[in-house]
């Protein structure tokens, strides 16, 4: 663009003629040629286009908006200068303008080829980006799977912690019960010791009574010799003593057995 207001206005008119709705549509070659001829004729009728200005205006169309060529897709290759319709001297006042248009057409062809190469490079770049995107998606899936596994492991660890806490509480209760049972066993042991001591005292008394009874039995013969009249009474007394002694012996045996069982139980 030259910067002059008239040329800028003409370029805006040309842009509007090429794409009235600014939709980025692609043009075929005949339509492009028709629009260019109409625009050049319009400029000539206004008296604002000279041979040099015509040469500068055409390439400015693509230079001002290179992004449009990428969005519309590759433009059709302009025809060589020889394929442009030959106009009469009335439509084109000078051969210089025709030569300029041919030169601009060749420049447009070169620029279109460059746009083709840029489009191919853009497609290659797009393919590389798509491949990188696929790799990133695969990495994202792997990361999500690892995250899910870590989340599951965390939940399992929390469950194990809860189970361990429950077992610890149960172990504490069992220890408390064991301490209480130990205290009860100690109390029962003390009671059994007291009972054993009482039985031992009773045994001593019974043994003393047995000794006395034995002494009485030993003195029986002397008493019978000295007191013949008391034989029957002594016989009766002896029988009574025998009965008592037998009962005492049985009781002593029973107490001994009971004491032995208690000692065995205490030893266990």
UniProtKB/TrEMBL annotation:
<dbReference type="GO" id="GO:0000781">
    <property type="term" value="C:chromosome, telomeric region"/>
</dbReference>
<dbReference type="GO" id="GO:0070840">
    <property type="term" value="F:dynein complex binding"/>
</dbReference>
<dbReference type="GO" id="GO:0090619">
    <property type="term" value="C:meiotic spindle pole"/>
</dbReference>
<feature type="domain" description="KASH5-like coiled-coil">
    <location>
        <begin position="100"/>
        <end position="184"/>
    </location>
</feature>
<dbReference type="GO" id="GO:0005640">
    <property type="term" value="C:nuclear outer membrane"/>
</dbReference>
<keyword id="KW-0175">Coiled coil</keyword>
<dbReference type="GO" id="GO:0051653">
    <property type="term" value="P:spindle localization"/>
</dbReference>
<dbReference type="GO" id="GO:0034993">
    <property type="term" value="C:meiotic nuclear membrane microtubule tethering complex"/>
</dbReference>
<dbReference type="GO" id="GO:0007015">
    <property type="term" value="P:actin filament organization"/>
</dbReference>
<dbReference type="GO" id="GO:0007129">
    <property type="term" value="P:homologous chromosome pairing at meiosis"/>
</dbReference>
<dbReference type="GO" id="GO:0051225">
    <property type="term" value="P:spindle assembly"/>
</dbReference>
<feature type="compositionally biased region" description="Polar residues">
    <location>
        <begin position="84"/>
        <end position="97"/>
    </location>
</feature>
<feature type="coiled-coil region">
    <location>
        <begin position="231"/>
        <end position="265"/>
    </location>
</feature>
<dbReference type="InterPro" id="IPR028170">
    <property type="entry name" value="KASH5"/>
</dbReference>
<dbReference type="GO" id="GO:0034397">
    <property type="term" value="P:telomere localization"/>
</dbReference>
<dbReference type="GO" id="GO:0090220">
    <property type="term" value="P:chromosome localization to nuclear envelope involved in homologous chromosome segregation"/>
</dbReference>
<feature type="region of interest" description="Disordered">
    <location>
        <begin position="73"/>
        <end position="105"/>
    </location>
</feature>
<dbReference type="Pfam" id="PF14662">
    <property type="entry name" value="KASH_CCD"/>
</dbReference>
<dbReference type="InterPro" id="IPR028168">
    <property type="entry name" value="KASH5_CC"/>
</dbReference>
<dbReference type="GO" id="GO:0000800">
    <property type="term" value="C:lateral element"/>
</dbReference>
<protein>
    <submittedName>
        <fullName>KASH5 protein</fullName>
    </submittedName>
</protein>
């Amino acid at each position: 663009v030259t910067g002059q207001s008239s040329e800028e206005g003409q370029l805006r008119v040309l842009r509007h003629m090429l794409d009235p709705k600014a939709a980025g549509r692609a043009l075929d070659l005949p339509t492009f040629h028709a629009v260019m001829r109409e625009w050049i004729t319009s400029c000539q009728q206004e008296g604002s286009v000279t041979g040099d200005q015509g040469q500068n205006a055409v390439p400015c169309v693509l230079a001002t908006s290179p992004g449009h060529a990428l969005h519309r897709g590759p433009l059709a290759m302009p025809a060589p200068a020889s394929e442009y319709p030959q106009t009469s001297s009335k439509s084109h006042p000078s051969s210089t303008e025709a030569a300029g248009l041919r030169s601009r057409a060749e420049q447009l062809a070169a620029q279109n080829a460059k746009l083709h190469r840029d489009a191919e490079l853009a497609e290659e770049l797009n393919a590389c980006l798509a491949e990188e995107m696929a790799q990133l998606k695969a990495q994202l899936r792997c990361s999500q799977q690892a995250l899910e596994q870590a989340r599951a492991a965390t939940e399992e660890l929390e469950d194990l912690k809860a189970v361990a806490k429950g077992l610890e509480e149960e172990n504490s209760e069992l220890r408390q019960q064991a301490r209480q049972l130990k205290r009860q066993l100690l109390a029962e042991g003390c009671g059994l010791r007291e009972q054993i001591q009482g039985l031992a005292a009773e045994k001593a008394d019974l043994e003393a009574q047995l000794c006395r009874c034995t002494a009485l039995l030993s003195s029986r013969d002397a008493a019978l010799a000295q007191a013949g009249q008391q034989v029957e009474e002594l016989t009766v007394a002896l029988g009574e003593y025998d009965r008592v002694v037998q009962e005492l012996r049985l009781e002593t045996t029973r107490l001994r057995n009971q004491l032995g069982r208690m000692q065995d139980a205490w030893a266990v």
